[in-house]
Amino acid sequence: MSEQFDNTAGPLTTESGAPISSNNQSEAAGVGGPLLIQDQVLLEKLAHFNRERIPERVVHARGAGAYGTFTVTADVTKYTKAKFLSQVGKETETFLRFSTVADSLGGADARRDPRGWALKFYTEEGNYDLVGNNTPVFFIRDAIKFPDFIHTQKRDPYTGSQEADNVWDFWSLSPESVHQVTWLFGDRGIPASYRHMDGFGSHTFQWVNEAGEQFWVKYHFKTDQGIKNLTQDEANRLAGEDPDSHQRDLRESIERGDYPSWTVQVQIMPAAEAASYRYNPFDLTKVWLNEDYPRITIGKLELNRNPDNIFAEVEQSIFSPAHFVPGIGPSPDKMLQGRLFAYGDAHRYRVGINADHLPVNRPHATEARNGNRDGQGYDGRHGRQKNYEPNSFGGPYETGQPLWGPTQLTGTTGEWETPKHAEDDDFVQAGKLYRLMTEDEQDRLIANLSGFIAKVTREDIIERAIANFAKADENYGKRLAAAVAELRK
């Protein structure tokens, strides 16, 4: 939490501490005359006001957040040496930021969009950031396609609006998206609140124990409030009546002591089993079946404190999948590999090179010790300390102990497609998801999808999109084709 200042007692002052004579009239050249450039109160206020906003996030711009506690409830030391997971009952402070993905900062909470799930653990070994979504899968499997995908979700360069043609042209030409699109246009596509949805690490990560044994892991956060969703009609109404609905619900629930919580579970795969698993375990468009790797409950996450200042603690909060601690590391997931760079780079541009020094972002139980100095926003915290390594003045030193285990590599460099495993294709899991739905759920899915596809102006794009759903399930495709045709009569 940011340092508290007394803003009530004593006279108003400028930023430099000088008392302010008048905060209601600007200094003028005589009664009714023009204003004077020597009025530093006026100039300071206007200059600061012009700079109050920072660039919004390109994605996940609109969000809300809260502080909380993660508590370990099961022994996982045979899988990871991470200290914050080292004993049952151990508590770690957290900060969780929820968000919509594609909308701008001025959008509405109740819209059909994946929800970002960015969780910061303030551990004794530094900050660990787990940056995922409220869905276990995603639209694409390679980070090189992410800018293209987001461009289809944002405003068209000519019309200035999101265009159905762009969205469905890209999705229909990217059949790996069918699984996530089925999820998004189903009932869970518009959560009723941030409290009433699950969260996922989404990617596959590495855990390594004290003996050096490696495991692949997926994170699941199961809401203890129960799943609640909005229909499209309910969402349309709520977005107009209360654009801040989800942010308001989160804040008010914590204010009244109704602290939201999630049961934390993991799926764990011994590293040696990855090569022979039925699906590529590092493909973000696929899940691991629970029948193959059952979820194991390991902890409880509770949110119990609201931020005091949204801009300082939510807007300026930064998260990076590259923020690991000993015992946890990355996987060969191509989307994750790209995000390891992209998130940190985005924050260095958006918040500044010293964004990690802000209270919401800095480690709690340790401090950053390195040679990084200067740059905009630097507060001189290192004083006279030397800014190089090695040095003989008592400076920090390297440990020689990597955070995670090595990954065995073979072959030659190249622009390779993601390797396919025995049961891999782009449609099998989307078909499974469709067939798991009740008839009513399928009806709403078809209605949501057909309403959007019917807005597409080109028949070839429509045909291509429907063909992908038919490959996932024949009935799925037939029902969708009939619904779109009816809407386009």
UniProtKB/TrEMBL annotation:
Q: Does the keyword Heme apply?
A: yes
Q: Indicate the segments forming the Catalase core domain, all copies.
A: 13-397
Compositional bias ranges of the Polar residues kind = 1-27
The similarity annotation says:
Belongs to the catalase family.
Region (Disordered) residue ranges read: 1-28, 360-421
EC number of this enzyme: 1.11.1.6
- Name the UniProt key words of this record, in alphabetical order: Heme, Hydrogen peroxide, Iron, Metal-binding, Oxidoreductase, Peroxidase
Q: Binding residues for heme, per the UniProt record?
A: 343
What is the name attached to this protein's record? Catalase
What's a single GO CC term here? Answer: cytoplasm
| Active site per the UniProt annotation | 60, 133
One biological process GO term for this chain?
Answer: hydrogen peroxide catabolic process
SMART domains attached to this UniProt entry: Catalase
Statement: the UniProt record of this protein carries the keyword rRNA processing: no
> Matching InterPro entries, A to Z?
Catalase, Catalase_3, Catalase_AS, Catalase_clade1/3, Catalase_core, Catalase_haem_BS, Catalase_immune_responsive, Catalase_sf
What are its cofactors?
heme
The protein's annotated catalytic reaction(s) are:
2 H2O2 = O2 + 2 H2O
Say which enzyme class the record assigns.
oxidoreductase
Q: Name one GO molecular function term.
A: heme binding
Designated gene of the protein: katA
Lineage, highest ranks first: Bacteria, Bacillati, Actinomycetota, Actinomycetes, Glycomycetales
Q: Which Pfam families match?
A: Catalase, Catalase-rel
